[in-house]
Amino acid sequence: MTQDRSVRAVGWARSLPVTSGVKAAREWSREHLRALGWERTAPDLVDSVVLTVSELVTNAHVHARSGAQLILVWDGRCLHVTVHDASSRVPEQRRPDDGALGGRGMLLVDALADGWQARPCPRGKDVIACFQPPAR
What we know:
Protein name: Histidine kinase/HSP90-like ATPase domain-containing protein
CATH architecture: 2-Layer Sandwich
Keywords: Kinase, Serine/threonine-protein kinase, Transferase
CATH topology: Heat Shock Protein 90
Low-confidence stretches: none
Pfam families: HATPase_c_2
Structural class: alpha+beta
InterPro entries: Anti-sigma-factor_SerPK (IPR050267), HATPase_C_sf (IPR036890), HATPase_dom (IPR003594)
């Protein structure tokens, strides 16, 4: 039996302790999107991914009060952006008051990503957003 050894996906992972800034997550993500060539072919998509990373890592640090593990996986169809934190409480979309300073993060993720989901796991939760690049 022959095995297909072609690459099916490429991924990167990074731990982000609470003491690290969200800026580090944004820069790290932008660097890997550059490796995919997206800064040249889909710059608006790169901005959407980076803003989503910023929101999800901020949520992990502020609401879960934990470090975050950021994982980017490109499977040829979708870039899966996963942020894991130590809280099992899944995020909810809220309709904040007009004067509220926060509470819009998941509304923003919903508007930017092609889809997202949150799921509890044994040691916290994963929030996963999917981004599909424009057809060439």
